[in-house]
Design goal:
Shape of chain A: globular
Distance between the termini of chain B: 41 Å
Oligomer: heterodimer
Helix content of chain A: under 10%
Order of helices and strands of chain A: EEEEEEEEEEE
Low-confidence stretches of chain A: none
Shape of chain B: globular
Strand content of chain B: over 45%
Largest sheet of chain A: 7 strands, mixed
Mean pLDDT of chain B: 92
Structural class of chain A: mainly beta
Largest sheet of chain B: 6 strands, mixed
Chain lengths: ~110, ~110
């Protein structure tokens, strides 16, 4: 059974803290994604990676960075957390096989920044 | 660039009633189409997908969707809704030129007993 796991389901941090959200997939997928989900706004892409050490900005990269040192792991970093980054964060992965493939999602991390 | 519209933000149905959730897309060629479901506090789970072939697609949990090219639509249907179907439903479209899908804003399904 394919799996995408995220390090925390719930996280509470203070303004200004550095926050790491970890995502691991066991499907040997090349592509990995970080989304932010807010009510009424749907899913917005923050960053994605199509290979180890490769990354590209999505629609809302400001205030975030990412790291992909190993194929199975994709980390989202909030360098200095702010209250407007309180949100649900979803990680996803997909296969890069030369044709389109569906994404597989993790359970999400609900982050609250106080 | 492609876009996806889910016209209904909320849909309320009674348990046992039929369901249709609407999805319209904008894209010049034949798209790849998906429906995902998100239960409260969970990630997204793929319900079904259309890549090519038969335009009526069967998915998990008794759902189906029909691709209508002339209407640029990919509506999700279920003949009889169960209380456990209450969730957020997302339509997404992908294209051959990119592996990044475009998601609709979602439709929240409320099921009354």
């Amino acid at each position: 059974d394919v799996k995408v796991t995220q390090s925390s389901r719930y996280l509470v941090k203070r303004t200004g803290e550095k926050v790491f959200l970890e995502c691991v997939q066991d499907m040997d997928h090349e592509n990995m994604f970080w989304y932010r989900q807010d009510p009424g706004l749907g899913l917005r892409l923050i960053y994605f990676s199509y290979d180890v050490k490769m990354k590209e900005k999505g629609d809302i990269p400001e205030g975030y960075s990412v790291s992909r040192e190993k194929k199975e792991r994709f980390s989202l970093i909030l360098e200095s957390a702010s209250t407007n980054q309180t949100s649900m964060y979803l990680c996803a992965s997909s296969l890069n096989s030369g044709r389109y493939n569906e994404q597989f999602f993790g359970p999400g991390t609900r982050l609250t920044v106080l | 660039a492609q876009s996806v519209t889910q016209p209904d933000i909320h849909i309320t149905v009674s348990e046992g009633a039929s369901l249709e959730l609407r999805c319209n897309y904008s894209y010049g060629a034949t798209p790849y189409l998906f429906w995902y479901v998100q239960s409260p506090g969970q990630g997204l789970q793929l319900l079904l997908k259309y890549f090519s072939g038969d335009t009526l697609v069967q998915g998990i949990k008794g759902f189906e969707a029909e691709f209508k090219r002339s209407q640029s639509s990919f509506n999700l249907r279920k003949p009889s809704v169960h209380w456990s179907d209450a969730a957020e439903y997302f339509c997404a479209v992908g294209t051959g030129g990119s592996y990044i899908p475009t998601f609709g804003r979602g439709t929240s399904l409320i099921v009354h007993p």
